[in-house]
Amino acid sequence: MNRKIKTIDDLVSIISDLKSQGKKIVQCHGVFDLIHIGHIKHFEEAKSFGDILVVSITPDQFVNKGPGRPAFSTPLRLEFLAGIESIDYVVSSKWPSAEELLKTLKPNIYCKGPDYREHLDDITGKIDDEAIAIKSVGGEILYTDDITFSSSNLLNKFGNLFTKKQEFLIHNIVKKYKFDQINTILQDVKKLKVLVVGEAIIDQYVYCEALGKSGKEPVLVLRDLETENYLGGSIAIARHLNEFCDNISILSFLGEDKEYKDFIEETIEDNIELNFLTKSNSPTIIKRRFVDNIDRKKILGVYSINDSLLNKDDEQAFLDVLKIKSKDSDLVIVSDYGHGIITPKIATFLSELDNFVSLNTQVNAANIGTHNIKKYHNINSLIINATELQYEMRERNGDLQKLAIELKSAINSDFITVTQGKDGASLLNSKNILSQSPGFASKVVDKVGSGDALLALLSICLANGVDEELSLFIASVGAAQSVESIGNSMPVSKIGLLKTISHFMK
User: Fold this and answer.
1) Side-chain half-sphere exposure of 205, counting CA atoms within 13 A
2) Coil, strand or helix at 205
3) Which of 463, 493, 499 has the alpha carbon at shortest distance from 478?
4) Which of 79, 88, 302, 381 is the most buried (most CB within 10 A)?
5) Which residues of 195-204 are buried (b: 16+ CB within 10 A; e: fewer)?
6) Angle at 196 between CA 190 and CA 201, to 5 degrees
């Protein structure tokens, strides 16, 4: 059986030899997570188009179908496919989609199922790219006509992929919406003009090897191996919105010497407008995390920061720009990390805006005991972590819903959302009606940035009048996507989000 399983390099040579013998090569590509009768018929018909059938699969790390997917690992999927009589060779791709593999293997025919015949129905838009790729190597794309089944539908029904809470929410969403409606809702938010206000942060990850204890002192000694810089803070929030909104602006501060300005400008997406002022006597904020290179666990955090409040001149300069930028915005997202940028005067100005204002304030190691959410009032949407809510209300063991209602009333917020990590999030609307979403992450690489992703997506949905339960569901799926990568290295993918929701709803 395993003689059918090949590497890409081996298959390139094999296909070249077969073509020289006049053989016609057909390639199918997919995840093929749960093989069913629809797949068998698809492979049999695909084989009839040529002489040799090659089936390639998307490797585990690129499968984006929600928690617990793929249900079967890359080796198991390859082994199963190798046992199917109509298939001659199987291979795992090393790319997230099929285009590069098609260009590498150069089959005569690329075969897709009947549900791909109408290219506009493919939410990823990849079928057009694949059609171009196969034509570029002299091949053609053909479609089978057999009945289709959905692996996602079968796994959702029988695979026990979801918790009871996840099943309950997905069931509610399916009762109220069709996938096309959700797709249209996310298309509609593109028109929003969004201003993101808050600290610009460079998240720096220093990957290290632990050498051991110092010979003379009780100090852990590390060897630095590699350093990666990611855009964090308000910049990360804006990046999460890049594929959802066409008009995004950032208003923030860099250090007096504008450190990392070039890096930010080179890395940021083209449709995000940067408005940076400089904070006197301050560096650009760097949050440096030392990470064990083997298990990717954080060992130590070191911040380069001046978290004193803005001086009067810097504060006025910020307000001057804020007055201009807010007039041209539908939604203002405020992420107050408590590092001195949002002064009480600026908080008051933000509270009095006519725009939809969405606020997240964070308690962290640098501001515990000094950061006060109640400097804001008349906020449309407040998002807060459960621990921060308990801290703010001075109630270590208080009932979260009760505390949320009290804080919501204290700052006169229309919506309040309380996040609870892996346990998900709860949202109270203006009538204190509760919507809840469980966590959807199945693979947590790094929790940094998940709150920023949830803030970004929840804000645009609520600002555009989307139902609270659906808004929280969309934001929670996006937050789950964000924890699957290190830090803020990868903003939320709109296509990835839609694919996950689509598979949930089957």
Assistant:
1) 19
2) strand
3) 493
4) 381
5) bbbbbbbbbb
6) 125
pLDDT band at 252 (very low <50, low <70, confident <90, very high): very high
pLDDT of residue 91: 94
Q: How far is CA 168 from CA 27, 172, 253, 502, in A?
A: 39, 6, 43, 16
In what side-by-side order are the strands of the sheet with 89-92?
89-92, 52-57, 25-30, 109-112, 140-143
The DSSP symbol for 5 reads B
3-state DSSP of 77-121: HHHHHHCCCCCCEEEECCCCCCHHHHHHHCCCEEEECHHHCCHHH
Q: Given pLDDT bands bounded at 50, 70 and 90, which one contains residue 158?
A: very low
Instruction: Provide, rounded to the nearest whole percent, the portion of the chain with pLDDT above 70.
Output: 91
Percent of the chain with pLDDT over 90: 61
Q: Give pLDDT tens digits for 357-408.
A: 999 987 655 555 556 788 899 999 999 988 888 888 888 777 899 999 999 9
CA atoms of 95 and 135, how far apart (whole Å): 19
Integer CA distances (angstroms), 435 to 165, 219, 401, in order: 12, 48, 11
Rounded distance between C-alpha atoms, residue 126 and residue 131, angstroms: 9
Beta-carbon count within 10 A of 496 CB: 20
Tell whether the model's pLDDT for residue 219 goes beyond 50. yes
| Residue 361 phi, psi (nearest 5) | -120, 140
pLDDT surpasses 50 at 154: no
Please tell me the distance from the alpha carbon of residue 325 to that of residue 455, in angstroms, as a whole number: 20
Token pair for 182? 């959700």
Residues 6+ apart with CB under 8 A from 296: 445, 446, 486
CA atoms within 13 A on the CB side of 319: 18
Name the average pLDDT for the chain: 88
Residue 185 to residue 67: CA distance in whole angstroms: 23
Domains of the chain, first to last: 2-158 (3.40.50.620), 184-504 (3.40.1190.20)
